[in-house]
Each structure stands twice: as structure tokens, then as C-alpha cells.
Amino acid sequence: MSTFTIVMIVITAVLLVGVIVLYFLGKKAQKRQEAQQAQIDASKQSVSMLIIDKKRMKIKESGLPQMVIDQTPKLLRGSKLPIVKAKVGPQILSLVCDEKIFDSIPVKKEVKASVSGIYITEVKGLHGKTAAADVKKKGKFKAWVEKMQEKAGAKPIK
Q: Cβ contacts of residue 89 below 8 Å, gap of 6+?
């Protein structure tokens, strides 16, 4: 056998072992995530709150309790989380929000939210409609491409 085929066999074997390890680690992480989600669903409560502010902030700057900051893994302390400052009853709290609903939370409005500990899982408008997320303004190039597609008949004219 030539040197090239031996090297290719070794590389293939290493990649195959890597894929198998990642598969089992992924299954384990998925089971852990499902268990955490079941715990969150079991302990969630419906709360009415006034949203004061929302930002993506580092955990150290977020205003969360020190006990929560200490429990987070050291690698995640530098990452940014969606933080919502809300007035719940007479208290002003910093809460961590689910990434999926962060953009749909209205600021300076009263909402009814499902909260599990310090984690907001769901938000519904209490008074009036909740404003949809702002539509991103298109750049000049994308607007020009869309205009050309409309002229060519590739997209229906609005």
C-alpha cells in the first residue's frame, strides 16, 4: 500500500470516531434539555408585569442575583443573554427571557407572562395589541435587486 492510502484510511477512521462521539454526546444533551424543559413547564406561573426595558447583556452586568451568577458555568459568563427588566407588583426585577420570544416583547407595556423562577417562557399582551417586531430596513443593493426582479416579473408586484 502506498503512503497516501494509509494516511487516508487513518483520517477516515479518526473522522468516523469523531462523528460517533458527537452523535452520542448530542443524544445525551438532548435528553438533558428535554428534562430541563419539563422542569420549567412544571413550575411556570402566569404573572402580570410592566416591561421597563429589554437588552442583551452579559450576566455580570445584568443585575441578576449573585447566586445565579455564581451558578453559571465560567465559559458562559462572558456570553450575552436576553435580559428583561420588569415591574412585577411593587418590585422591579431582572429576568432572563427565552431567545425565541425576546423580539416580540413590547417595551413600556403591561403584559401577562409565563414565568418559571427568573425565566420568562411566554408573553401575551394584556391591554391592546402587542406591536410586532420592527421590520428591518433593506439596504440599497437589496432594494435595487428586488426592484429589478419585480420589473423582470420574477416576483409579483405589490
A: none
Q: Is residue 112 within 8 Å of residue 58, measured between CB atoms?
A: no
- At 61, the pLDDT band (50, 70, 90 cuts) reads confident
**Element containing residue 131 per DSSP (H, E):** none
What's the alpha-carbon Rg for the chain, to the nearest Å? 24
Q: Whole-angstrom Cα distance, residue 53 to residue 95?
A: 11
Domain that holds residue 16: 1-42
Q: How far is CA 8 from CA 2, 11, 21, in A?
A: 10, 5, 20
> Could you tell me the three cell numbers for 140?
440599497
Confidence of residue 129 (pLDDT cuts 50, 70, 90): low
Least confident of 12-16, 33-37, 74-78: 74-78
CB atoms < 10 A from the CB of 83, how many? 22
> What's the CATH number where 53 sits?
2.40.50
Q: Identify whether the C-beta of residue 148 lies closer than 8 Å to the C-beta of residue 123.
A: no
Strand bridging mode 110-116 / 80-88:
unpaired
Strands 110-116 and 91-97: unpaired
